[in-house]
Amino acid sequence: MTVILLVEDNELNRDMLSRRLTRKGFTVEMAFDGAAAIERANALQPDLILMDIGLPVIDGFDATRRLKDDPQTQAIPVIALTAHAMMQDREACLSAGCDDFDTKPIDLPRLLEKINNLLERSAS
After folding, report:
1. Strand, coil or helix: what is 44?
2. In whole angstroms, what separates CA 19 from the centre of its chain?
3. pLDDT for res 83
């Protein structure tokens, strides 16, 4: 079963998205801040990470940089999730090491397409 690490500090967003992903057949593990995301990613070795950018402790940019700098986690695809939808926001996420970018509120079919594309790429 595909394991997704959902890194989200907002309880409502976390609950809604985790339930929707679970219904689609994914196993969803969670972290509530950037520091916990790094620890959980190292421990779990998930198939993919959904990384909120506006996180406490360590923001999503820095958490992603650290994950991508670590040989143990650098191959895990990361999709940035943010309410900021400007082109420079997307570029900032990609330059931090995110493999893709999606905006909130979450459009589940669009996000699932991005998840599936990254999982296919990482499997080949």
Report:
1. helix
2. 16
3. 83
Q: Look at the chain and report how many structural domains it folds into.
A: 1
Whether 7 maps to a domain, the answer reads: yes
How does pLDDT run across 31-84, given as a tens digit for each residue? Answer: 999 999 999 999 999 999 999 999 999 999 999 999 999 999 999 999 999 987
DSSP states of 55-114 as a string?
A: -SSS-HHHHHHHHHHSTTTTTS-EEEEES--SHHHHHHHHHTT-SEEEESSP-HHHHHHH
Distance of alpha carbon 87 from alpha carbon 27, whole angstroms: 31
Domain extent at residue 48: 3-107
| Contacts with 99 (C-beta within 8 Å, 6 or more apart), sequence order | 77, 78, 79, 118
Query: Residue 119 domain-assigned?
Result: no
CATH number of the domain encompassing residue 89? 3.40.50.2300
Which SS3 state, helix, strand or coil, does residue 54 take? coil
